[in-house]
Amino acid sequence: MPTYQYACTACGHTFEQFQSFSEDALTVCPECDGKLRKVFSAAGVHFKGSGFYRTDSRTSSSSSSSSSSSSSAS
């Protein structure tokens, strides 16, 4: 089940709630009975560095190692 974060527009109370996708969003603050809003944040997945694309697996070191091994064989 996903975790949703809510914030009250009246008192500023923030909390997280486990809810299934089929459940309706919460609308009433449990602290002051004010109006709630969902808080959206950045995604939890960040693709940084090399290795995420097909072209990243082709490094220049592999081509230089094959040329160095052929020169050492001759």
Automatic annotation (TrEMBL):
Residues 60-74 have a biased composition (Low complexity). Residues 50-74 are annotated as: Disordered. Transmembrane segments: none annotated. SMART domains: CxxC_CXXC_SSSS. Residues 1-41 form the Putative regulatory protein FmdB zinc ribbon domain. Pfam families: Zn_ribbon_8. InterPro entries: Regulatory_FmdB_Zinc_ribbon. This is FmdB family transcriptional regulator. It comes from Nocardioides jejuensis.
